[in-house]
Known about the structure:
Blueprint: H1 8-18, E1 22-24, E2 36-38, H2 40-59, E3 64-67, H3 76-81, H4 83-86, E4 88-93, E5 100-102, H5 103-111, H6 113-116, H7 121-130, E6 147-150, E7 154-156, E8 166-168, H8 174-179, H9 181-188, E9 194-203, E10 218-228, H10 233-250, E11 258-262, E12 274-282, E13 285-296, H11 298-307, E14 313-314, E15 321-322, E16 325-332, H12 333-344, E17 345-351, E18 357-363, E19 374-378, H13 383-396, E20 402-404, H14 410-420, E21 424-428, H15 430-435, E22 437-442, E23 448-452, H16 453-464
Parallel strand pairs: 3-9, 19-20, 19-21
Antiparallel strand pairs: 1-2, 4-5, 4-6, 7-8, 9-10, 10-16, 11-12, 12-13, 13-16, 14-15, 17-18, 21-22, 22-23
Adenosine-5'-triphosphate binds near residues 204, 219, 221, 289 and 332.
Amino acid sequence: MSAKKENLMEKIVSLSKRRGIIFPGSEIYGGLANTWDYGPVGVELKNNVKKIWWKYFVQEREDIVGLDAAILMNPKTWEASGHVAGFSDPLVDCKKCKTRHRGDKLLEEKFGVDKIAGIKLEDVQPRLIKEKIKCPDCGAVDWTEAKRFNLMFKTHQGVTEDSGSLVYLRPETAQGIFVNFKNVLDTTHMKLPFGIAQIGKAFRNEITPGNFTFRTREFEQMEIEYFVAEKDWKKKYEEFKEACWKFFTGYGLNPKKLRWRQHASDELSHYSKETYDIEYQFPWGWGELEGFAYRTDFDLAQHEKFSGQKLRYREPETGKEFVPHCIEPSFGLDRTALTFLLDAYTEEEVRGASGEKETRVVLKFHKDIAPIKVAILPLSKKEELTKPARDIFNSLKSHWMVQYDETQSIGKRYRRQDEIGTPFCVTVDFETLDDKAVTVRDRDTMKQERVSVDKLNKYLKDKLEAC
Ligand code: ATP
């Protein structure tokens, strides 16, 4: 039985808190709206998502290299990229309760993203009123005209707070890649087509953050700028589209809950000629998981113009110089981790120790995503069992994230590990002292197998590291 749609989010939020996956931010001070902190289990989940993404798109490809650029950048970057002038959302105020909302998103909730995408600013308020869209806070239908609200966070660098010290927290990691295009080219001698990948924080002063970690003001992105000659963009675009789809499905996301959605021409960002999003069917509806844009030569050409530096590629065969075009898969790390979490969440009816029916909650993560790979559980707290159990823990801990747990009943410990998606539980019992073997329990099938201690490492390696 799969978890009921309507309260799946509540279950995920409460499980996350209970099991140290994600906590509300600054909780002891009453929190800070829509900020979230990853706990001991959550940080492993997030690190694993970064790891598999990096492995898939950087390590296993010869044509993509990595980068880690600074969050604070010369503010000219954001003039060149178009963010100062154009990175904004339509904001409407409720005249009755004075709360602020994203007009397009209110309409999208009722009519779906396909029908609302690209709506003109001046049409937002009349449409909200015509369709009698109520304020989510007070229920009134009394909206101000929509105005543009720039999403970039501003701050000041240094000791003075004048306009000369103004800097922005980057709203996307992409620009750190574009400004380093020449550095990477000069130091690696990459040949077109090639890409530069980066994982890092981005900040957007979203008008209506929400849905747990789906939309926050501080988040992480995993982006690739893939440079091509103009004539090759379509071919590479299609290849990359397929690779992105395989990334998600290969790591276990249910393909029935994934779809591609093409942006209509009036929805496209200022830099894009073609964009598709991979969307996931979240409990509240379809939502963007990854954006995939053909950015043309817009960014490099703009940076050439604003910096006065040449950002060109010299074709070795012909000596011809040109500004490469670019395709961009842009993933949200937090959204990806949330999606894996939602997709893995399963409730199953099982028989408890005394034969009664009970519900087992289990996160059926792909093994590479599972935060903890193996739990070592001695059946009793007596030293004759905890000593060999600790020895096993010590022999495995340098290979994988392993947890040692001797508290509470074995049933409760299995339940805890199921709830954080640990693929294998290793139980050390009194028989272990005689047969030098342990019981290995598989998370998904709950089947138990007796494995001799000296073969345990190999047994787990075969299961955890098989491709
Ligand atoms: P949305 O339409 O949801 O606001 P977007 O089109 O503005 O997203 P992009 O600029 O394409 O998003 O950003 C690329 C990716 O970064 C998104 O697919 C998403 O996974 C992630 N992302 C964007 N904004 C946020 C946010 N506020 N919180 C968490 N992740 C985000």
